[in-house]
Amino acid sequence: MPLTVEDLKRFQQQHPDYRLELVDGAIIVMSPSGFESDEIAAEIVAQLRNWVRPRKLGRVTASSAGFKLPNREEDVRAPDASFVKAERLKRTTEDYANLVPELIFEVRCKTDDLNQLRAKIRQFLDLGTTVGALVDYRTQTIEVHRNQTDPTILHNGDRFTVPELLPGWEMEVSSIWPRSLIK
Q: 3-class DSSP state for residue 170?
């Protein structure tokens, strides 16, 4: 019997220290990502927030924000960093957001399978996300995914931009790596 969003909420109340997702009717326990990958995700969130908030463009969230997806299974997923346009989420919510963000980032950690991360990004894109980015500290690259195009690979020296969502904002790829990692 598949589990539901209500089951996820109950399990989360019983285990508040766990990061959880609901995927295809199963609760997935997310292990701590490790310091390095979380430091990278925090830098992405900081750069996004520092651009978005003063301009009142929307909301930026980190990996604990859950999104209840509009698919048949009503999955609840939590990207490592997300952006939602202001007009789509005018007020914050204590619950999971009932929408897909416009922009998501998945930051690879030491235990992640790249194909599973790509599948998660693909799921978001299929449900309406505009841009999904896979950040890999091992190769110091960002794979930029958009619907109906092949991914673009960005390296140190390149700039990540999403002019269709955040005109004028850019993030230098090398700016997100901890200083000890920069090649």
A: strand
Sign of torsion over alpha carbons 35, 41, 43, 45: negative
User: What does the pLDDT read at residue 27?
Assistant: 78
- pTM for the model stands at 0.90
Mean pLDDT of 68-78: 92
Mean local confidence (pLDDT), 150-155: 97
Residue with structure tokens 């701590």? 32
Average pLDDT, the chain: 91
- Architecture in CATH of 34-65+77-181: Alpha-Beta Complex (3.90)
For tokens 């604990």, what's the residue? 64
Domain residue ranges of the chain, discontinuous segments joined by +: 34-65+77-181
Q: Is the pLDDT of residue 113 over 60?
A: yes
CA proximity to 117, closest of 88, 137, 99: 137
More confidently predicted of 31 and 72: 72
Neighbouring residues of 7: CB distance < 8 A, sequence distance ≥ 6: 22, 27
User: Alpha-carbon distance 33 to 38, whole Å?
Assistant: 6
- According to DSSP, the β-strands at 152-154 and 131-136 are unpaired
